[in-house]
C-alpha cells in the first residue's frame, strides 16, 4: 500500500486531505442536482457540428439508494444525432485530478492555446475552437470523480466512500450507469477514455461494469497508461523492471537534449538500440546482481553511459541502476537545470538540482496556469455554470487513498483488463504513449501488455501509438493532430462488424 501512495504523491504533487464528513461543500443541506444546457457549434474536419453542452451535477447513490455525493460533469452531445451514435466517458487521473486536461487539451470542442511545441505562452491565456476534437466521432461526457472539480461527498456519504481504488471504480461506474439510464443511451456504442491513473480506472470499470452490471464497452482509450505500478517502482536489489523499462525513455530524453553526441540520426533509432540493450545485456546484468563479473559490469556501465548521457563513474557509483529522480536532476546538472517528469523536454533552473523537497516539475508548472485560467473562464462565460466552490484542478480534494483492494491484485489492474477483454472479445483498446513521459514510460506499458497472457485474437484488438512529447502528448500541436488521426482510425476499428 505504501508503495502506491508514494507513487501517487510523486505523480501529482500538492495533494491535501480534509477529514470533514461532507468534504468542503459550502451548502447546507446537501445541494440539489443542477444542470445547465447551452447550444454551440464547432467546425471539425471541415464540417460544422451543432451540439448541446450540459454542465451539471449528478447524485451518486449507495446500494441502499441513499445519496452519498455528487459528481460534476460536462457532456457534449451532437444535435439531431441518430440513436446509435457512440458515447465516450472521459476522465483524468491522479487520483485527484479533474478531467480538465483531456477536456480542454484534446477531446472537447474547446482547447487551451499553447506554444506549438506545448510550452507555456504569455498570460493571459485563451481557449479556441478545437478542430481536433473527437466530437465528430462520439458524444463525450467528462467526469470529475468526487474530490476533484466541483464533485463532493455529502448526504450519507463521506470521503471514504470514494477515495480508494475500488471505491472510485464503483462510484464512477454508478455515475455512468445513471447517465445511461437518464439519457436513454443504453443502446449506444460505449467507450471509456482515461489518462494516467484514469487508465487504471478504465480497466477496473470495464471489468466491474461487465461483470456486475452487464455493460460491455466497444472500446477503451488509454492515454499515458499505467496499469501496473510495480513496474515503475525502484527497489534496489529487488525490482529490476523499473530501470529496464525506463531506459528507452532516458535515451529518448538524452537524444532530445543533445547529450548523446552524433551517435544516432533519429530518436527512433536511439530508442530501438536502447530497447535491445535493455532486454538483453542490461537485464542479464541486473539479474546477476553482485555475481556480475567486473569485466561485464564495466562494459554495461559504458553502454549505459552511451545511451543515457550520464557519466560512467556516476553509473558505476549507483550500481548500474539510475532511478528517475537521479536522471532528471543529473542529465543537465552542469548547467544548473533539471528536467520535467510529465514531459522531459521541459527544463527549469534550480539552485540545488538535487534538493528533492524543492523540486517542481517544470512540465506541470507550464500547463497548470493556462488550463486553470481558461477552464474557469469557459465554465462561467460559455457553459453558464456558476458555483462558489473551489474547483479542484489537481489535488486539494483528495489525499488519503485506500489501496488495500488494489494490493489484492498485486498492484496490477491489467489482470482486470484481460478479464474484461476475455468476457467481451470484441472490445478494442487504444494505447497512446509519449516518448518523453517519465511518469508512465512507454516501454513499461509495452512490457505490461506483452505479459497479459492474451490469446492472439485479443492481442490484435490492441492499437499502440507513439508521440514525440510527454504525458499530455496533445499539448504539442503536431501530436494533437496525430492523436486525432489515430483516434479516427480507432473508432472506425472499434465500430466495424
UniProtKB/TrEMBL annotation:
Keyword field: Carboxypeptidase, Glycoprotein, Hydrolase, Protease, Signal
SUPFAM superfamilies listed in its UniProt record: alpha/beta-Hydrolases (SSF53474)
InterPro entries, sorted: AB_hydrolase_fold, Peptidase_S10
Domain of life of the native organism: Bacteria
Coiled coil: none
GO MF entries: serine-type carboxypeptidase activity
Gene Ontology biological process terms from the UniProt entry: proteolysis
PANTHER family with a match to the protein in the record: RETINOID-INDUCIBLE SERINE CARBOXYPEPTIDASE, SERINE PROTEASE FAMILY S10 SERINE CARBOXYPEPTIDASE
Name the UniProt record assigns to this protein: Carboxypeptidase C (Cathepsin A)
Lineage: Bacteria, Pseudomonadati, Pseudomonadota, Gammaproteobacteria, Oceanospirillales
